[in-house]
Design brief:
eight-stranded mixed sheet, about 400 residues, Rossmann fold, five-stranded parallel sheet, globular, 2 domains, alpha/beta
Length: about 400
Amino acid sequence: MLHGKKILLGVCGSIAAYKAAHLTRLLVKAGAEVQVIMTPSALPFIGPLTLATLSKRPVLHQYANTDTGEWHNHVALGLWADAMLVAPASANTLAKFAGGLCDNLLTAVYLSARCPVFLAPAMDLDMYRHPSARANLQRLQSWGNHLIEPESGELASGLHGQGRLAEPENIVALLAQQLSRQSGIKERLLGKKVLITAGPTYEGIDPVRFIGNHSTGRMGYALAEAAAAEGARVVLVSGPTQLQVQHPSIQRINVQSAQQMFEACHAHYSSQDVVIFAAAVADYKPVVQEEQKIKKKGESLVLELRKTVDIAATLGKEKEGQFLVGFALETEHEQEHARQKLKNKNLDLIVLNSLREEGAGFGHATNKITIFSKDGSHNAYPLKQKEAVAADILEEIISKLDVA
């Protein structure tokens, strides 16, 4: 996917800059031409000679060589590239990008680039969570820049959480995936209709309280974008989430409760070719939803709950040729429970992930999955960004549909 692509690799001042060497090697191995541009603050973290040797090009880190008078034309660099990847992207450089500041070669090239820009931040978890950093990232994304979210794990500070640079293998996979989508080469689901559920459901207790879960909806949204990029017409039935859809072929339907999600799915179900149940639907809801806010009184509150509709199981019974994909989030006896759900709900595939796996489950930018098929086969995948996981799931679906 990257063969012959011209990639500008920006390296910023971060302890994660050492990963730029491996990243450069992987890009070159994939057939890309790589031009490395370093910020002045990146120089103490990794030597330009290392990156120049791996990229087979001189590393640029200043506007001009004052000894020879050679000018490094930032406009020409921006026009040369098929993609600009900044990894690691520091909080400082992201703030400069967002503010239009231009005090080094990398920021000048960014402002001149006409190609897609991919930003892979690396910073401590509190820096990444800070409102100013979040606002800068949101602003950059609103301009069409692509965010490769940092992964969770042990950080240089000794703290543990989200902030570490995505692994180079994941970055290269996401870059290749996105560039192949934009090239329009694929579209193996052209003419297919795909229904996807995403996010949590909220089951009301009273006007201000609800039963819910920690699902962000990111997995379902990534699947929707991936399916649309393959040419599918996508209906995305979404519970409450802050995420937004980008592709014009995605029709988003917003719901709150499990019952609303079921009704929306049922209304579209008969015309679909593929249905992916990626939502984290609440299993129970209050028997009575109070019309007024429940006042605090006494030391305890007892709620009577009843089961919500099992959307996948109910629609599985009405299956008439649809290809059904479910999800299983387990904490014990994972494979046994996943295979049982696959059979009981009349699914064609089920995607298993475990809350016991570090970096998997709710609230993470990454996931680690195993896909089980009704034919008895299964495939296990390493920890990846959820966008890359979505691509893996879609490949499994396409291979089973025999439309590749």
